[in-house]
Design goal:
Main location: periplasm
Family: Belongs to the LptA family.
Signal peptide: 1-30
Number of domains: 1
Pfam families: LptD_N (PF03968)
CATH superfamily: Lipopolysaccharide (LPS) transport protein A like domain
CATH architecture: Sandwich
Subcellular location: Periplasm
Number of strands: 10
Largest sheet: 10 strands, antiparallel
Number of helices: 2
CATH class: Mainly Beta
Order of helices and strands: HEEEEEEEEEEH
Mean pLDDT: 77
Shape: globular
Length: 182
Amino acid sequence: MRRHVPSRSTKIKFMLVGLIISLLSSLSHAQTSPSATINNKPISIDADNQQIDLKNNTITFTGNVVIIQDNLEVKAHTVVITDMNSKENQIITANGSPVYFKQMNAQSPKQTIIGHANQLIYQVKENSVTLIGDAELLQQDNHIVSNKIIYDVNQQKILAQANKGSRVKTTIIPNQVQEIKR
């Protein structure tokens, strides 16, 4: 009986398939593991392309990126997630023209906050969103326009900062603010 010896290209194909299977299984584990999720809720990411850099522990998504995690939604052109295995150091940076952000409150739809900017940085440990460049946050008819807006999701606090020579612009509808507080 003659033994079949696979060619070099066949061996490389088997190695690549094994590597892909290994990556997929580790990613599926990461998506269900508490250390790779924001606030122990799974993250769903949809994009045209994805690149994994195992050496630097980053994942880059490009082209029509949509991220959904619990009541948080982000739409961007490019998203880079650093330190996938560390909830303490994980940062999600989104770039676009613009990047869209939406944080819904299921119990009170009037508390839904919508925002956009040229760049969005989500710091997982602090659970804060920073909007940079032509930043705007809206809640009902109330809105803030500034160069930089920092939104603390847990505390529901907003800090707006203008560039030198510009100012923060805010519109407040008093009776809507009273409704939002209820």
